[in-house]
Design a protein that fits this description.
The protein has one domain: Rossmann fold. It is built from five helices and three strands. Helices cover 51% and strands 12% of the residues. It starts with a helix and ends with a helix. With 110 residues, it is mostly helical.
């Protein structure tokens, strides 16, 4: 899935930084200038919910959370300010790009 997402996003001209788990995602997102974080809720070592909390505390965002579990997405969406968007897997390239454009519309317009 990660390779598919990278291919879709890089085709649009963006640079993709990948993390193997939640801890690495936090490390990368807080060390680099990130325009958007796309991460799964279920990840090893630290789940996406905890990683998102830490990133938000450090001013990282916007965050787009993904999961194949509707109940996990619903649970995450109940927590205020956890993420700016949620997407259920599997998703098409079109749906992914629509969500990314929605979250980055201010940057794209400028």
């Amino acid at each position: 899935m990660c390779a598919y997402i990278s291919k879709v996003i890089t085709f649009g001209g963006a640079t993709v930084l990948e993390a193997a788990d939640g801890k690495e995602a936090v490390k990368i997102a807080t060390a680099e200038k990130i325009d958007l974080v796309l991460m799964d809720i279920k990840m090893p070592h630290m789940d996406g919910i905890e990683a998102s909390r830490i990133m938000k505390e450090k001013g990282v965002g916007p965050i787009l959370m993904a999961s194949s579990s509707y109940s996990l997405l619903t649970q995450a969406a109940k927590e205020p300010f956890l993420a700016e968007g949620y997407i259920e897997k599997p998703f098409s390239a079109t749906v992914l790009l629509e969500e990314i454009i929605k979250l980055l519309s201010d940057k794209i317009d400028n």
